[in-house]
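[Automated response] Your request has been received and processed.

Submitted sequence:
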Amino acid sequence: MKSSFMEPVDRLTSRIKKKDTWFQKALPPGLRVAVTPRHLATSDSYNLLMYSFRLAHNTISYMVKQGCMVIVAEYSKEVFNIPTASDEWRGAAELFNIRWYNSIVLMALVDADYKFMWVNVGSPGSCSDVQIWNDCDLRDHIVPDRISWPQPDHMMTGTPHTT
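Generated structure:
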C-alpha cells in the first residue's frame, strides 16, 4: 500500500522531473511535489519555506507556480467538474462569496483526543465569526447552559512548577 504522499509523487513525476546538467543536479521529484501543497496549506511565505526546505525563495516561487499547473493538469479530469446546466452554475456561485473568495467556513468542537464531537460546515466565507456563532446550534446549547460540562479537574499530577 502506497503512502498518501507517494501517490501524487508517482503521478506527477513525469510532469515535473528535471534532468541533471553538468552544472547542477536536478531537485528530486518528491521535494518538488512537497513544496506546493505545503505553501497552499499553510500560506507560509516563500521566505519562510526557504528555511524549511533549504531552497532559495525564488526557486520555491517557481516550483509553486509549476506545481499548481501540474496538479491541475493531472487531476482536472477526476476532480474538477465544470458546471453545464444553469442550476449547477447557480450552486457554484453560492459558494463564491462577495469578496471573490471561494470559501466555506468549518467550525468544529473536538475532544482531548482530537475526535470531532460537533461540526458545522457551510457558512459562506464572507460571514463574520459572530454571525456564524449566533446561527449555530451549538450556541443554543452552550449559552443557556444545557450541556452537562464535566467538573474542573487537575490535568497534571505532581507539584506545580514554580519560578
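Summary generated for your ticket: The CA atoms of residues 109 and 118 lie 5 Å apart. The first helix runs from residue 6 to 16.
If you did not submit this request, please reply to this message.
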